[in-house]
Amino acid sequence: MNNEGYQKYYVPDQSPWPLVGAIALFFIALGAGFFVIDMSKDQSGWGGYMFLLGVAILFVMLYGWFKNVVDESMAGLYSPQMDRSFKQGMSWFIVSEIMFFAALIGALFYARFIAVPWLGGASNNEMTGAILWPNFEAVWPLLTTPGGTETQAMGWGLPLINTMILVTSSVTLHFAHTGLEQNKRSQLTGMLLLTLILGVIFLGLQGYEYVLAYRDLGLRLDSGIYGNTFFILTGFHGMHVFLGALILFFVLLRVLKGHFTPEKHFAFQAGAWYWHFVDVVWIIVFCLVYVF
Amino acid sequence: MSTVTTADHHDEHHDHKPTGIKRWLFTTNHKDIGSLYLIFALAMFFLGGAMAMVIRLELFQPGLQFVDPQFFNQMTTMHGLIMVFGAVMPAFTGLANWMIPMMIGAPDMALPRMNNWSFWILPFAFLILIISMFLPGGGPDFGWTFYAPLSTTYSNDSTALFVFAVHIMGISSIMGAINVIVTIVNMRAPGMTWMKLPLFVWTWLITAFLLIMVMPVLAGVVTMVLTDKYFATSFFDAAGGGDPVLFQHIFWFFGHPEVYIMILPAFGIVSAIVPTFARKKLFGYASMVYATASIAILSFLVWAHHMFTTGMPVFATLFFMYTTMLIAVPTGVKVFNWVATMWRGAMTFEVPMMFALAFIVLFTIGGLSGVMLAITPADFQYHDTYFVVAHFHYVLVSGAVFSIVAAVYYWLPKWTGHMYDEKLGQLHFWCSLISVNLLFFPMHFVGLAGMPRRIPDYALQFADFNAFVSVGGFLFGLSQLIFLWVVIKCARGGVKAPAKPWDGAEGLEWEVPSPAPYHTFDTPPQVK
Question: Is the CB of A92 less than 8 angstroms away from the CB of B182?
Fold first, then answer.
């Protein structure tokens, strides 16, 4: 057999981290479940603590797991084939994330173009409008629900600034990448740090916008389908920005430790892909939730 | 398909397995993880089966005898959830873990640690689900499809646990699917080109793609259920501008591809077994691949056939009726190919072949009742009756479950190194075949006569048929104990199995000794 140029595919030895991660997810899910149940009954319970315990275990697990992976990577155990596995795995993970947002955006479309008009009597629902909700006016944004909850619409001035910030951060991240590829380490570090700062500013402004919505506009998570879709889309997007920033933060720490070469830098690439994905999702969310 | 020129596996000298409980808890080995998945699935199969026994016990006679309606609802819900997410899907994932690396000549799955993670979170997810049954008010009781507003306005307190358990199951499935795709795309041995892949690998590749596309949608819809119930949103509440039918759209956008997730790997298994025991090459290999891909694409375009009675516009109803009927075409291609494979073959009828043959016949019956359900005006009559129950149990029990059982018999010699007991296996087959039909066939008739599903009581005229069905159910449940016995007996010992116990079998998995060494194909074989 001709095995020239063949490098053995690295199959790691036993690892405790998956099991630790499973226990972490168990506590997170069970804790979150009990927390939500207690909250709905205005009770206090230990669900929240269990959730936090789970998160703590998860961080221990992530630290241990990634430490193993980084050590193995730095020891040169990973062949180019292995690198491809990681890249493909990350790409498919992002596909699954896209589908998650697709479900939420689908709900927005259905509410806007089907549910609300039908409640107002469109299509074959004339009697629904006439008998169930005679005073309901089907408009979007839905500021007065059929049940009578009122709210105000969110403008798109602040989000536009946020859009520019996030797009800029994608550009700076791209320059960080070219810096890495051309072995300009200071450009890499600087641009990566700048990206991270822009991400944090984005999250800050998003938080400020939520304050405005709740305080001044009366736009709340529970103010009808407009508020529902607004907060669930921007909220889940914000969580993804937070996660992306967390990934980039650890990538930055590794950069400062001198990891990554112009040829091999999967962790950087994965973080960058994730960041660009979050950016693209934002542009779609911005268009659908705020502008149109 | 493929032949191997140099199948060198000098693995013996470094074939040391880790020992003790740590071997199973910390493992990164695809065979260990495959075994874990399969054992877990078998345990869940008996747990979900026990719940089905409770259902059949209650329905043995009209009137309320044994359980109260609320508990009955929990039984139907948990039976569905456990069988779909705990038995059938993990069993297929277990088979994928065991067989795909060996079939494509890979040393292991592409991401071995993540592989173990995706297994170990599953038992915890079901633990959460079972914990929820013991909370005040009980566990999920809104059907495994958790339609709003049953799961929002009218559900009990424990629904949050259900939601987070489903999230974890979804995470497990997505990680498992990513692993399968990356393994198949990236780890094939040199010369193992796309159109040489065994069909089990092909069907799993497409299944994994479906999983990645739809499990996040399920996550989205349970999240909306959570916020509707606990955070006062109104996605599924008309008073806030939402629509309960929106729930059904999102759920079935997940749910219909999910149905194919539970049957495509079965097609792969049958496509492996039938040629082996007919001693002929699979008829129409390429058309099988294209048919599988067509079914996967169509599965995204048919979801609303579950919703014909919700009052959709006529145009939408017609669209979904025609796309649904279209699925019969690639499925028909498959059935035709299996039959054509057997045509003038030198057939023998060992247990895997018997189950595969039963699959072809009974799955086709389930498919044909599916075509009946696809006809919108007829569906108005069948909707939410036992006819639907009969339909999907024919495709899932005598379809998916039979294929899994066939696969276990087929590959047990490879896994354990022993032949299973052929006599007991045949006994298991005949008991299963007769009881499964006694169990599900009469459901067609009571359904057509209008008996509604998911109700613990029924009108007197359905009494005789339901008694038959319940007897069939108990017999089917008991028959599976024979299966458990055969599997345990085979794992503990028996006639030594050769590397290739089936003389008509083809594929790389038969080139390695039985039982398969702990590590196979450390160096990839050259496939010609």
Answer: yes
